[in-house]
Amino acid sequence: MIVPAPASPGPDEALGPEGYRLEVRGGDARIEAEGAAGRFYAEQTLRALSAAGAPPDVTIADRPRFAWRGVMLDVARHFFGVDDVRRLIDHLAAYKLNVLHLHLSDDQGWRLAIEGWPQLAEYGGRTAVGGDPGGFYTQDDYRAIVRYAAERFITVVPEIDCPGHVQAALASYPELAGGGAAEPYTGIEVGFSSLDAHAEETYRFLGDVLGELAALTPGEFLHIGGDEAHSTSAEDYLAFMARVQPLVAAQGKRLVGWEEIASAPLRTGSVVQYWNTIGERGHDLARAAVAQGAQLIMSPADKVYFDMKYDASSPLGQDWAGHVEVRDSYEWDPATLVEGVGEGAILGIEAPVWTETLRTLSDVETMLFPRLCAFAEVAWTPQDTRDWEGFRARVAAEAPRWDAAGVAYTRSPQIDWP
Ligand code: TNX
User: Between 137 and which of 73, 141, 215, 292 could a Cys-Cys bridge form, CB atoms 3.0 to 4.6 Å apart?
Assistant: First the structure.
């Protein structure tokens, strides 16, 4: 890497599907791995070690702490085309991340062509926050993203957010809105739209959408959102969850949802994404998820929401979860964050990038770097081999590469930049 502080496995221990051994002597590298992913990660490490010339002599045995090391890009509030997504995938690969979660629908736009419901993309895809241009992926575009990611051992996890965050869908198909015309929305409020939990049309719609999405998605997960359904009653939310889960299961996929889904009975194998660091509710929901046997993805907003400002001077971003400086993104332990949610319940961690205020990939990079490097170490490196001072030095060494490649980043005062 950000050469992660090495590493857990001893000489005879299994490296696992993502682990590797790397030995460099006099500029010659020898790589050992059980699988192709491990070999790929060894090459990423070697590339980072070689950034300033010939790689130093090292012996590294390395494997990741967490299986799910993700970034979410919100392509609904602002749209990012295939080339932007490819560039983001390159960034993920460089730091050994392996999940790209795409937030494909929200109030402000619908971003994937669905053959059975063409108005979703053609009409619902036109809008974005602030009246900015919209856009959507054709199914071929989406396949190209999935393929490009897979070549870098990254799984795409698509999200269709429901039952809230659905204004773009309601505006595209008034029959989903009970016949009343729903207006397209370009503001940044949340929690005002809802599918009708008691209308059969809702489930015909979701069955079709999830069916097409599953057919396009080789990964084992479909994310159904479930967050901030403030205009769905608690009772309707439960009714909705009882109906949507079998639709995901019917596609042979595992369901992922934001922490709110843990308020409903969950099917075996579900994955719950913890996010809300305001108050105790997020903690309660995370514990409720564990009590049901679900696995957790930890996305604490006050540490890894990379749409949060670094400090008051950040020109981009929001601050509802506070300011998130580099050190905040680095100095935390996913396994001690929520009492009652230990290492064994945690599938991994994910950094969401919501894009209400972010209009270009350069904006996104400004928010990602250098915080993404901190996040990547939390995801990969065992807790007891990480330390802030070491990280500060390693991350500073990345800057020349970013400068050379035209990668935007924030020159946080916490790092001694070269
Ligand atoms: C909360 S986090 C949201 C999003 C917003 C984000 C802005 C979550 C599951 N929902 O709808 O974009 O805050 O930071």
Answer: 141
